[in-house]
Amino acid sequence: MELDLREFEEVCRDLYVRALKILPPDIKAGFSELQRAETSATGRAILDTMVENVAVAERTKNILCQDTGIPIYNIRIGRGVAFDGADLKAAIRRGCERATKEFSLRSSVVHPITRKNEQTSCGIRVPIIHVDFDERPETVAVEMIPKGSGSENGSFLQMLLPSDGIGAAKRFVIDRVIELGGRVCPPTIVGVGLGGTSDLCMHLAKVAATRPLRSVCADPEGARIEAELSRAVNELGIGPQGLGGRSTSFAVHVELAATHITQNPVAVNIQCHSARRARATITPGGIAFD
């Protein structure tokens, strides 16, 4: 299959808009679970308001949050797909720019020194693009994540020593959740990266934070730790928007990678309650939006 880059550009444009306007079904189900479990009257009232905000945004075809985020595109290419890599990146950028201009989105992307905003949601090395490959024949999967700043500011890395053990990594996660309190718009998804190098560990934390709810770490030890931390975080009493209750987090997700014998890296990346993402799959049979 030869990838039609004009069609691919349209998909990238549409996914940005869909991600900003339609909350994924797993997050809606997560809200329902938290509403049933919340024991604080204030917490329940805040959760009810959040759910109503989602309903109003979708009913009026408005965006879920004013923060249009840093645009991230995760591309997974299957076997037998022909494409030019440079043209692929250019198509993603055009799609991102068109979404911003054609739908009058607020551009949240600026130069880090001059703070100049090009009003395109693009800039140096932005949109962020990750490309990976799998064995599915003639398939291209595209995921778009508009990562908001309020939650992205809840990012931390600690290069622990192996002698510190996994207990230190778990304490690091809990301490960071306590430190952040309501600043990251809880209920959140707490993404945790374990292992790798410093940059890979941070990347894994973001992969974990943007994973669908009820998904489980592929590594059994990682799955055990994310279950432990998910219980622990909701015992902290931070609650929705930091105003008290059991609904501090939808879940804690863990992703890990092998690391060096003298390293024990741990990273945290937070996803706020407006956990936006959109996906599409391109095959010879057409385009399917998740």
Which short descriptors sum up this protein?
Fumarate hydratase subunit alpha/L(+)-tartrate dehydratase alpha subunit; 290 residues; 4 iron, 4 sulfur cluster binding; L(+)-tartrate dehydratase activity; 4Fe-4S; 2 domains; alpha+beta; four-stranded mixed sheet; single chain; iron; 60s Ribosomal Protein L30, Chain: A; five-stranded mixed sheet; 39% helix
Classify the beta-strand content into a percent band. Answer: 15-25%
Largest beta sheet: strand ordering: 2-1-3-8-9
Structural class: alpha+beta
Sum up the overall morphology in one term.
Answer: globular
The helix/strand series, from N terminus to C terminus, equals HHHEHEEHEHEHHEEEE
Keywords: 4Fe-4S, Iron, Iron-sulfur, Lyase, Metal-binding
Organism: Methylorubrum rhodinum
Family: Belongs to the class-I fumarase family.
Pfam families: Fumerase (PF05681)
What topology does this entry show?
Elements: H1 5-21, H2 25-37, H3 41-59, E1 70-79, H4 85-102, E2 128-137, E3 140-147, H5 149-152, E4 155-160, H6 165-180, E5 188-195, H7 198-209, H8 220-233, E6 249-257, E7 264-271, E8 278-283, E9 286-289
Parallel strand pairs: 1-2, 5-6
Antiparallel strand pairs: 1-3, 3-8, 4-7, 5-7, 8-9
Pfam families: Fumerase
Organism: Methylorubrum rhodinum
Domain Fe-S hydro-lyase tartrate dehydratase alpha-type catalytic: 10-280
